[in-house]
Amino acid sequence: MPIELDADALVAMLPAGGRTIVSGCSAESLLLADAVERAGASLGAVTFTGIFVPGLNRRTYLANPSCTTESFFLTPELKAAGEGGTFLPLCYADIRQRLLACPPDAALMMVTPPDEEGMCSFGPTVDFLAELWPRIPIRLAHINPLLPRTQGDAGIPLKEIMAFVEAPQVPLGTPDAGSDATADAIAAYIAPLVSDGATLQTGLGKVPGAVFRSLTGRRNLRIHSGLVGDAVVDLEEAGALAPGVAVTAGVAIGSDRLYRAIGGPAYRFAPVSVTHDPLIIGAIKDFIAINSATEVDLFGQAYAEVGPKGFMSGPGGATDFARGAKVASGLRIVALAATAAKGAISRIVAPNAGAGPVSLSRMDVDIVVTEFGLADLRGGTHVERAATLIAIAAPDHRERLTDEWQTFIQKL
């Protein structure tokens, strides 16, 4: 059975020179993160890895100059840390393969207290640790009585944990993003594409929330997603979800309202090997992937990794869900506001003019939606695709985009 220690003694068990995976997202342990920082030079050269979400996970784990942190999303704090942070721009399938090929030496995990069978749940953050933990020799846990127990993945037996500290911590979360006129207009174009019985994948933010709220009149909907937020509870409370297990997800990030709901019978939490597997997704009938982008060019290529202040993330799970939707003969939607900077900047851009690498190729996108309309790119020529994309750009930018398209074509 595991031994109970304080947080500082627990962190002192991390192997110097090794790699440690950290529970991130909503299940990050601030207690253990603080202990890492206090350990300082005594910690040695530890490499930390995990899913650190910008705006949510603010710790860097850089306890001393020899420590490094591998991240697949670039938080402002890690960006400010400079060389101490290593940014790996991988999709979720490749993150999983990397972690399986080179398992961490230790884990700092947050789990629930054990149930009557001695099983500790990973709560709202099941993504990678649920599959990886048997391969990790040193398993250290923050047992958090405030972490909601979730169904689906069995979790980890208490006896398989080497040492633990027990203390309450409210799970990290974000308030519901709410909505605005732009998000509501985008949702109004997407909603007719969703029929009763469809299965949806989305991320977080105003647009996914507005889409879900626009679908409360549907019935027998299901969710299969890497991530869910508060808006899924709107569907549940409206009776829009299918009976039984209707939501399969790897992570939940939201408010206390969401965390109170996810322990219910409608929810199943599963690792990335389930949520992002293209063959599993491919067997789902009427699957619709709805993802965001910062820009879409006139070829229909989506850019989602660079913002005004530089790199933000890798492609995340969008490419995995696009592949799965293709296998399923489903629908792949990219939704974005038509402009930024109060209308001064068009987010529909000239060919190859998006910032950063292409996140979704033109073969991974079926429909692009802005507040000005819906561009169905399927089966179109280059000229037809460009025209339909210009038609959903903000009116003030359409003439310029038309000129840029013509200039591009004339150079070929």
Written description of the protein model:
The chain has 412 residues and is α/β, with parallel strands linked by helices. Helices cover 27% and strands 22% of the residues. It has 14 helices and 25 strands. The protein has helices at residues 7-11, 30-39, 76-81, 92-101, 129-132, 181-190, 206-214, 231-237, 256-261, 272-275, 278-282, 318-327, 382-390, 395-410, and strands spanning 3-4, 19-22, 47-50, 68-71, 85-87, 106-111, 119-120, 138-143, 156-157, 163-166, 199-201, 222-228, 247-252, 267-269, 287-292, 295-297, 302-303, 306-307, 310-311, 331-335, 339-340, 345-346, 348-349, 367-370, 373-376. The strands form 6 sheets. Strands 1-10-8-6-2-3-4-5 form an 8-stranded parallel sheet. Strand 16 and strand 17 (302-303) form a beta hairpin. Helix 6 packs across helix 7 (206-214) and helix 7 packs parallel to helix 8. The model has no long low-confidence stretch (mean pLDDT 96).
Key traits:
22% strand; 412 residues; alpha/beta
Outline of the structure:
With 412 residues, this protein is of the alpha/beta class. It is built from 14 helices and 25 strands. Strands 1-10-8-6-2-3-4-5 form an eight-stranded parallel beta sheet. Strands 14-13-12-11-15-20-24-25 form an eight-stranded mixed beta sheet, with helices on both faces.
